Amino acid sequence: MSMTQQAEPAVTAPPAPGPGKEKDGRTAERPLAVRLLARPEVGVFLGAVAVFVFFLVAAPPVRDGSSMANILYQSSTIGIMALPVALLMIGGEFDLSAGVAVITSALTASMLSYQLSMNVWVGVIAALVVSL
Length: 132
Prior knowledge:
Elements: H1 32-37, H2 40-58, H3 65-90, H4 97-115, H5 120-131
C-alpha cells in the first residue's frame, strides 16, 4: 500500500439482539414479589388485613359472628358513599361537594319528616329534588 492510499476504516455491524444480550437496570425483569408490592391495590389490601388482625387481637367481641355482621353493615353504609367519591378521585375529578350534598339531602328529608311531621316519603322525594 502506498502513502497516497489510505486504508478505509473497517465497518462493524452492531451486535445482533439475542439471548446473550445484556440488560441494564431499566429493562431488567423484576421479581414477582416486587411487581406485586408496587401495585396500590396490594397496599390497600395489606392495610385492611392489618386493621382486621389488630381488632381481632385487641377486641375479642369482634370475633363473634353477630359483631362481624354489624361491622359489615356499618361499613356498607360508609362504602356506598365512599366508592363513588373514590372513583372520582381516581379519575382526577376531586370533588369535595359530595359530602355536602349527602348531608343536605339527609337534613332535608329528616327536617320535613320529623320537624314538620310529614310523611317519610314526602321527605325522601323532597331530598331527591334538593339533591338534583
